[in-house]
Structures are given as structure tokens and as C-alpha cells.
Design brief:
Helices cover 78% and strands 3% of the residues. By secondary structure, the chain is mainly alpha-helical.
């Protein structure tokens, strides 16, 4: 017996040593791969930084770039760098703005309507109003145009992320909110233990969608044409614009191939690991039967990167925890007398009314001295035409993508198969194909007034699909198992579980898709290939033309009317639906 035990113990020890050696070898290989990846990233940034801050030459700001296909890898790196700097800024904005709107009743009453206005302002409106500021902040340097380009990409990314984060904060499960209060978490601790984990899945999917939206407006943000001036930055978007201008279909093809490679690499190296990692934030009491996997995430987990980051960031987190404790703990309240509260509300409302009144008077004066008040009715008519396109587009995209998105989100196997495909399609800049589509419209004699709806849908339908997928994937496994246990028919399962569960996500996707469609009208209602230009009647083409010609009064009028349409529709239609989703179809009780 002793000899058998000794032999078994020795075999187990030998197996254990072998396992330890294998584990050590895997860890070592993973560390090497991670270090190589970090060094490659630092090297790529080091290569680009000198050109980003390059001084302006004697010819002034460049208005053209080379269309040599050999420059495409470098142009792609510059575009990706701008995209993720803008995404980082969008994340910071999302957290600060969303928390302020969700945690303060008075601020929320102002910030959410303001967010409606901000998402309705096209990037050309932001560019025309801020390009001079960026050039003054960075005189004599290309960095001014770079900052303007990053800001333009930011304005195409931030709004849907903020809407998603704000809705997640308002729909936190009551049980978790009560647990945070019972545990007396500080506001900093609540942010990391409840707010961010609860919002992680929808926020991640909206980050992916934001990057896709940024790619859609890449051409307009890298080939900036405002006030009768053109500023061209090295990038894949400006490359396509320049190749289209010179009718270089071959070069456009190379740009499309490069873009596909970039999107696939980003999906493999970033989005796939993040979606697999985010699975741990699902609200469920059982593990997923088919968990998501990612080779990159596996390598990172096997390496010592997590330990190094924890050691570096823990002191910073402890310091922030200490300095935020005086702000109070979750659940603490400063009870104000009702009279004082009413006085504060009246004062706040009076100040905001005065500010709005002053703004309206200044706007009317500017329009009267510029485009003329009679122009308002013409622009309102153009806005109504674009509104009809946006409304029809939203209805059709919802009918098509809600069932598809819910099916993908509910099935992990389908999600693993289709998520990379959807990510590639949504991230691919649809306006790269506009020159080819323009040729198709011309050859088949398709009216651009109808064809522009197809162009708008190529960049905006994904907002609905991504939000529905995120909403469906967040359905707790307990509810799915309960629907099977009760023997619900497929129709009952859709009407009693799936559609109510994704209703709030569809509202978020619909409001951002509609806002994105208004923005997309800027680049979709006017398409050009070589010397051929097709222009649809609508508010988007009006703003594009007035911005390119430098008519600031007409640009201001067009942007204001567009914002008015978006805000009115949101107030009358979307926000009541969001309130209904929060009241009846959220996981709160």
C-alpha cells in the first residue's frame, strides 16, 4: 500500500510539475507577445507624432494629398489614431455628462434636451463654427487641423454613447441599488461597482457603433471644406475623396481593401476581446452555456499584464477613493425644505428662460441681417423633405433589424458567427462606395431624391441593430430558462420576453439612428464622382452647399432648423417611448 501510495504521489507530483512547467511556458509566451504588441503600438505612435505637429509650409495648409497606393498603410494608421483619440474623448464626455444628467434633476432637465440638440447638429456645423478656433490655438502647425478633425469625429461618436450610458444609469436594478446603499458605498465605489458594470455591455456595443459612425464621416473630417477653403490631412478618408475627384477607381478599390483589413484587425485585436470580457457583467445567476472566446483575451489573461496594471493603478484608485469620501456615500441625502426647493426651481427656470430668450433674439437678428427671414420658410420645407426620408428609413430599418438583432443577441453561437461580419459591415465607411453608387445611379437613371435614402441607410441602420443585439444579450439567463419552463410558444416568447426586453434598447438605437440619419443627409443628399454631382432636395444638401461656400448665415439657419426638427421629434415621440420603456420594461422593480 505504501509503495502504491508513494508511486501515485510521485506521479501526481510529476504531473503537477509538468502542468506548472506548461503553465509557466504559456505565461512566458504570452508575456513576450504582449510586450511585442505594446512596443509595436508605441513605435507606430512614435512614427506618426512628428508629422502630427508638423509646421505649415510656405504654401499654407495642404489642400490635397498623394493618391499613391503605397501610402495607404501610413494613411490608415493616421486615421485609426484620430479615431481612437476621439473615442477616448467621447468616453470621458459620456461618463461626466451622463452622470451629471442622471444624478441631478435640474441638470438632467437641461442636459438631455441639450444632448438632443447636439446630436442633431451635423459635423459640418461644428467644423464651420470651430475650425478658426483650432487654427488660432495651434498657429502655424498642422496640429490645428488635426484637432479640428478629431473634434469632428468626436461629434459623430459621443452622443449615442451618452444616451446609452444615461439610460443604463436610470435603469439600474432596484436590488443592486439597495445593496449599494446598504453597503454604504462611496460615490466613487458605486461608480466602479455598480454604474459602470451595469452599463458595460450596451456601452461597449455603442462604442463599436460610434467607431463605425466615425468611419462614415471620415472623408468629411479629413478633407475639411469650409468657408471656401479646403484642408486635407493624410488619411484613408481624404485618400478616397482625392481618388474620387480624379476618377481613380483602381485606387478607390485599394482603399476599400485597406479599410477591410483595418476593420478586421480592430475587431480581432480590440472588439472581440472586449465583448468576451464584458460577458462577466451580464445580470444572471448561471454561467453562459456557450461563453464567448477570444485568442487575444486569452493571451492577456495568461500574461502578467493584469498584475502590472493592478500594481500601477491601485494607489491611484485608493487616492481617489479617499478624496471622494467627503462627497458622501450612496443613499445619503440633503433634505431641503419644500419652500426652498420650489424657490430654487423657479430661480433655475428663470435663468434658463432668460438665456434661451437671449439666444433666440440673437439668432433672429443674425438671420435677418444675413440670409433673410423669408429664407426660413424655404429651409423649413427642405427640412420636411429630409424628415420624411428619416422617418421612412427608421421604420424600415426597425422592421428589418429588430428581429435579426434579437435573434443574434439571444444566441451566443450566432453572435460569435455574425458579430465579426456585422462589425466589418458597420465599421466600413459606406461613403467610400458612394462614387460607385453614383455611377450606378447615373447608369440606371435612379432619382437621387429616392436613392439618397439608400445612402443614408448604409451608415445609420447599424445603430438599431447594435443596440438591439446589446439589449437581447443582456437578458438574464433566468428569464430565458423561465420562458422555456413555462412552455411558451415562439410567438409568446417574442411578445412576453424578447420584445419587451429589447424595447428600451430599440428606443436608444432609434433615437441615435434618427439623429445619425439627419447627419448622414449632409453627405448623402449630395454625391460627386469626378465632375458629375447629384443633388437631392433636402436640408442636408442645403447645409453642405452653404458650408462649402462659406455662407455662415445660411449654415446657421440650416443647422438650427435641423436641430429644431430633431428636438421636436425626440420630445413628442422618442422620449415618451423611453419613459414607457423605463417604467414598464426595465429590470427595476
Amino acid at each position: 500500500m505504501a509503495s502504491v501510495f508513494t508511486m501515485t504521489q510521485a506521479n501526481a507530483q510529476s504531473a503537477g510539475n509538468g502542468s506548472d512547467r506548461a503553465s509557466f511556458r504559456q505565461s512566458l509566451i504570452s508575456d513576450v507577445i504582449v510586450i511585442i504588441g505594446i512596443l509595436a503600438l508605441i513605435g507606430a505612435i512614435a512614427v506618426m507624432l512628428p508629422d502630427i505637429d508638423k509646421a505649415v509650409g510656405p504654401q499654407g495648409m495642404p489642400s490635397t494629398i498623394s493618391t499613391d497606393p503605397r501610402n495607404l498603410p501610413y494613411y490608415a494608421m493616421r486615421s485609426v489614431f484620430r479615431m481612437f483619440i476621439a473615442l477616448l474623448c467621447s468616453l470621458i464626455f459620456t461618463v461626466v455628462y451622463g452622470l451629471a444628467a442622471a444624478r441631478s434633476r435640474r441638470l438632467g432637465a437641461i442636459l438631455i434636451p441639450l444632448l438632443d440638440i447636439l446630436q442633431s447638429v451635423p459635423i459640418l456645423g461644428f467644423l464651420s463654427a470651430t475650425i478658426s478656433i483650432w487654427l488660432v490655438l495651434f498657429p502655424g502647425s498642422i496640429l490645428g487641423v488635426e484637432a479640428a478633425s478629431i473634434f469632428a469625429i468626436f461629434t459623430s461618436q459621443a452622443w449615442n454613447m451618452t444616451f446609452s450610458f444615461h439610460r443604463s444609469l436610470l435603469s439600474e436594478p432596484t436590488e443592486l441599488d439597495e445593496a449599494a446603499k446598504i453597503l454604504r458605498l462611496s460615490h466613487w465605489q458605486r461608480f466602479w461597482k455598480l454604474d459602470m458594470p451595469n452599463s458595460m455591455i450596451p456601452l461597449l456595443w455603442n462604442c463599436m457603433m460610434s467607431v463605425g459612425g466615425g468611419w462614415f464621416f471620415l472623408t468629411a473630417s479629413e478633407m475639411i471644406s469650409v468657408n471656401n477653403r479646403t484642408y486635407a490631412l493624410p488619411g484613408i478618408g481624404s485618400y478616397v475623396a482625392e481618388a474620387s475627384k480624379h476618377r481613380q477607381l483602381g485606387n478607390i478599390g485599394w482603399a476599400i481593401v485597406t479599410m477591410i483589413i483595418v476593420v478586421v484587425l480592430i475587431d480581432f485585436c480590440l472588439w472581440k476581446p472586449l465583448t468576451a470580457w464584458s460577458e462577466k457583467f451580464r445580470i444572471t445567476s448561471s454561467s453562459s452555456a456557450s461563453p464567448r472566446r477570444s485568442l487575444v483575451l486569452t493571451i492577456i489573461r495568461q500574461s502578467h499584464l493584469n498584475d502590472v496594471l493592478a500594481a500601477l493603478l491601485r494607489p491611484c484608485g485608493d487616492f481617489l477613493d479617499r478624496i471622494t469620501r467627503p462627497l458622501g456615500r450612496t443613499g445619503s441625502r440633503w433634505h431641503l425644505a419644500s419652500t426652498r426647493s420650489r424657490v430654487g426651481d423657479v430661480a433655475f427656470g428663470t435663468v434658463m428662460t432668460l438665456i434661451i430668450a437671449v439666444g433666440v433674439i440673437a439668432w433672429i437678428d443674425s438671420i435677418r441681417n444675413g440670409a433673410g427671414l423669408a429664407q426660413i420658410w424655404h429651409v423649413l420645407g427642405l427640412g420636411f423633405l429630409t424628415f420624411l426620408r428619416v422617418m421612412l428609413l427608421t421604420v424600415v430599418c426597425s422592421i428589418v433589424w429588430v428581429p435579426i438583432g434579437a435573434g443574434i443577441g439571444m444566441n451566443p453561437r450566432l453572435s460569435r458567427i455574425f458579430q465579426p461580419v456585422i462589425q466589418v459591415l458597420s465599421s466600413f465607411p459606406a461613403n467610400f462606395t458612394f462614387p460607385l453608387v453614383t455611377l450606378w445611379f447615373i447608369a440606371w437613371h435612379i432619382d437621387i431624391n429616392w436613392g439618397t435614402m439608400l445612402l443614408m441607410s448604409l451608415g445609420t441602420q447599424w445603430y438599431i441593430l447594435f443596440n438591439v443585439i446589446a439589449g437581447a444579450s443582456s437578458i438574464p439567463d433566468d428569464l430565458r430558462e423561465m420562458s422555456r419552463s413555462f412552455g411558451l410558444t415562439p410567438l409568446q416568447r417574442w411578445t412576453k420576453l424578447i420584445l419587451p426586453a429589447v424595447f428600451g434598447s430599440w428606443c436608444t438605437g432609434g433615437i441615435t439612428a434618427a439623429g445619425g440619419a439627419w447627419n448622414a443627409s449632409i453627405v448623402s443628399e449630395t454625391v460627386t464622382y469626378g465632375h458629375t454631382t447629384l443633388t437631392a432636395s433636402g436640408l442636408g444638401s442645403y447645409i453642405a452647399a452653404s458650408t462649402a461656400s462659406g455662407n455662415m448665415s445660411k449654415t446657421l439657419l440650416g443647422v438650427t432648423v435641423m436641430a429644431m426638427f430633431v428636438v421636436i421629434v425626440n420630445r413628442i415621440f422618442w422620449h415618451p417611448l423611453e419613459n414607457l420603456a423605463e417604467r414598464r420594461f426595465s429590470l427595476t422593480s
